[in-house]
Amino acid sequence: MELAPEQCRAARGLLNWTQERLAEEAGVSRSTVRDFECHRHVLHRGTETQIVRTLQEAGVMLLPSGEHGPGVRIR
């Protein structure tokens, strides 16, 4: 699944996580999360996989783009 910057921010909001917390949990740098969420760069596939897995393991469901765009839900 392709993670959108807006999904990442929304997922962090549902979890009440900071960028720093997501970075620590996913094993990436805070600047990677910050720059992705600010549309400064796209994620490498491996980094995206780590972040998606981390969010999903924390209880977030990432919804694919559909009629209304990508979304998130908490389990």
TrEMBL record:
Pfam families: HTH_3 (PF01381). Residues 9-37 form the HTH cro/C1-type domain. InterPro entries: Cro/C1-type_HTH, Lambda_DNA-bd_dom_sf. This is Helix-turn-helix transcriptional regulator.
